[in-house]
Amino acid sequence: EIGANRNAILLSCTKGIEHTTGMRMSEILREKFPHNPVAVLSGPNLAVEVSRGLPTATVLACTEPQCAVELQNRLGSARFRIYTGDELTGIELGGALKNIFAIAAGVSDGFGLGDNTKAALLTRSLAEMIRLGTAMGGKVATFYGLSGAGDLIATAYSRLSRNRRVGGRALPEGWKRSPFQPRRAHAPAASLNRDV
């Protein structure tokens, strides 16, 4: 059996959903440590940038609001801005679901489909994140915040993102170029001049 000091605040910085149960990380912690407050931290927190001291914002929620403030005071700094809340579900689901969409963004990059396609993909991804996340108990506003839209943007566009890189490598050998041929939106100027 696992034991923990009952005064310890358990902070999950893990982004994912358990495969066999569908449980979020905070739910697993609460099941194993029912007497401890459980907190989650998520947002656009690329580890390399955080470790370099680059300005970063994140969101932290806890089952006990006072614990969230205590963690904010202990972990936050001028360059690591922590916002607090009490909505664990949406924060965790935003952090987990954006991984899937970032892989898709990497595939789009690998095909060379361009930024317009990627923007459309991510806009629809955010809509899907909100639909699924709210069906699972999250609040809409949370998905528009740091742990939803913010994390999705950073993970889908950053060269530091592992998920984006995984998506870019998922293409079969020889498929580095777009299978789509660009269409001309306008006739060449020379032919227009001839017709006038």
Arrangement of strands in the largest sheet = 1-2-3-4
Largest sheet: 4 strands, mixed
In DSSP terms (H or I, runs of 4 or more residues), the helix count works out at 9
Q: Work out the helicity level.
A: 40-55%
Amount of beta strand = 5-15%
Compute the CA-based radius of gyration.
21 Å
**Subunit organisation of the chains:** single chain
- The count of DSSP E runs of length 2 or more, i.e. the number of strands, is 4
Overall mean pLDDT score?
88
Name the descriptors.
4 strands; alpha/beta; 11% strand; 196 residues; 52% helix; disordered C terminus; 4-stranded mixed beta sheet
Characterise this structure:
The protein is α/β, with parallel strands linked by helices and 196 residues long. It has 9 helices and 4 strands, in the order βαβαβαβαααααα. It has a 4-stranded mixed beta sheet with strand order 1-2-3-4, with helices on both faces. Strand 3 (56-62), helix 3 (65-75) and strand 4 (80-85) form a beta-alpha-beta unit. Helix 4 packs antiparallel against helix 5 (114-135), helix 4 packs parallel to helix 7 (146-157) and helix 4 packs parallel to helix 8 (162-169).
Helix-strand layout with pairing:
Elements: E1 10-12, H1 25-32, E2 38-42, H2 47-51, E3 56-62, H3 65-75, E4 80-85, H4 88-111, H5 114-135, H6 140-143, H7 146-157, H8 162-169, H9 189-195
Parallel strand pairs: 1-2, 3-4
Antiparallel strand pairs: 2-3
Helix pairs in contact: 4-5, 4-7, 4-8
The gist of it:
52% of the residues lie in helices and 11% in strands. It is built from 9 helices and 4 strands; from the N terminus they run E-H-E-H-E-H-E-H-H-H-H-H-H.
